[in-house]
Predict the 3D structure of the following.
Amino acid sequence: MKCSVVLIADWSELPSLLSLGHLDLFLIDVSTEQDFETYVQHATTSAAQVHLIVNSELSSIPASLQSEHCRSFLIRTYGNFEETAKAYSRLITIASSSHQEKFAIEDLLKSPSEVNQVTLTHSDQKIECLNQVREYLIHHAVISERIVEIILNGLDEILMNAIYDAPVDENGNQRLTKIPRNTPIALDEKNQVELHTVYDGQSFAFKVVDHFGSVNQLKLLKHIFLGSQDHLFQMNEAIANAGVGLASTFRMGASLMFISKKGIRTEVVVYFKLCSSFREFKNQFRFLAIHGS
């Protein structure tokens, strides 16, 4: 995949640039709120290949996410841009090619030494999964407990969403809305949830899979960006079927990727480099991307 950085002087040229068949990925810098709003005005339905470089505090993002053309973002916390662009294009290529089949999380890492998978057949297994990941990160990845707790908060939230929010009926209505999220429930057949973890000594990633593909992309993006802003950090869960954990995981340094095939499955991937300090962890290369229907 070619990674082209496009600096657009006249935003009306965007549709014609997107129509060029030999360019597969655009990284467009939207440094100001006005840039972002202008992009939304001129985006076209072919804009799936556009990935926006944004400031994490860009306050206009939540309002602008009414647009269906905003799906992938890189936060402006990276070092060498060419190296970042190369790494990011590789990740996006892997995600895009896995749209029809399950995403192979081990492909994210260059030489994974540990790959594990657990299938949850009961909601009570969630606590055991969290404890196993905690022990692994502390004793094998050797990162601080503060970073571990941030990651576990995100994993907890993603598992809860897969167990209690993802199940829908034939009309797309959530089946478990009236059930408290601490209610023990059996997860049989389609309700089963998968947890995959992978580690290569430098990076760690996990993936949670549900078999409904019911995620609301716009609500999800709004929630994460609103929850990533300091003054709006305490969120009402009704906004996007997710608690503070998911937003805080992204806010504090990890990358998020959502790969969804409507009615079939949603795969939520959390990816991060292992860092010796919290400051380094928070300032690492970070992205948010959504793929699929």
